[in-house]
Amino acid sequence: VSICRQAIQELKREGRKVFTSVFAEPERQKNKKWSDFLQSPYNCLCPIERSLEGEEVDEAITARLSQLAETADGACLALLATHTGYVDLVKKIVSTRRDLVVCVPRGAVSSVQAYQETGARVLPLGRIPEGPKIRAFLDPGGTGRVETAEPWKAARREDQEWGYRGERGYLIPSVAKFWFAHDLGRLTVFPAQAGCAAAHRRIKDAGPGTAWIEYRNDLAFFLPVGDREAQNSIRVNAQLGGQLAGSIYRGGGPFMVQDSEDMVLEVLRRMGYLDEEFSNDLAEALLTFVSMPENSYWLRKNCKAMPDPSDTPEDVLVKLRRAFLSHDTSGHWRRAPDMRPELVRAGFLRKWNDDQSAVMDAMRSYIARYGLQERRSYIGHAYTVLQHFYRSDPERSMGSVTFRM
Question: Which residues touch 317 (CB under 8 Å, ≥6 apart)?
Answer without folding.
Answer: 264, 265, 286
